[in-house]
Amino acid sequence: MANASAKDPLQPTGVIDLCEPLSPFWDNVINSTWGDFTICFEDVILIATPCLCLAIACLFYIPYLYQKAKRTKILKVGPNPILFNVKLGLCGSLAILHFVELALAGLEATQMLVPGSFFLSSTCSLFAMGLVAILLVLERRAGVRSSGLLCLFWIMTTAGMVFKCRT
Predict the structure, then answer these.
(1) Angle, vertex CA 106, rays to CA 87 and CA 41, nearest 5
(2) How far apart are alpha carbons 113 and 115 in whole angstroms?
(3) 2: region left, alpha or beta (phi > 0 left; psi from -120 to 50 alpha)
(4) How many Cα atoms sit within 13 Å of 111 on the Cβ side?
(5) Cis amide prior to 21 (ω within 30 degrees)
(6) Least packed by Cβ within 10 Å: which of 3, 14, 54, 88?
(7) pLDDT band at 129 (very low <50, low <70, confident <90, very high)
(8) What is the value of pTM for the model shown?
């Protein structure tokens, strides 16, 4: 009797495509009675787009923060306010969750075919949480109390997650 936990050597595993074998990238949602986005579209567009926008904006915003910190020579920064600590803690918690999601996708890829969109969305989200943490620290040093860039990022991420949870 063969071992039940042994993997079938003929069964393909890993990642072969961005969307397949789970779903196509786009399905005709306009003519359907209950329009839902495909899983691949949700992962690639709804999740990765806010992360990509944040990364592109950081190319210009991080040098600005460095220049602002040099120009203003802020008075001693002092102890970190509670809100800063909460933001940084939540960012770290979300980064841990995205890392676990990425690790689970990697574990699944060793056992069956997994679409590459799982890795793309988790990696983009993990990278974005790192950028958010860096921006929080740099803005604190530059004396920025509220960031329009991070507010826009969180609104876009929330909108994407609402659509993802709805479908």
Answers:
(1) 70
(2) 7
(3) beta
(4) 7
(5) yes
(6) 3
(7) very high
(8) 0.76
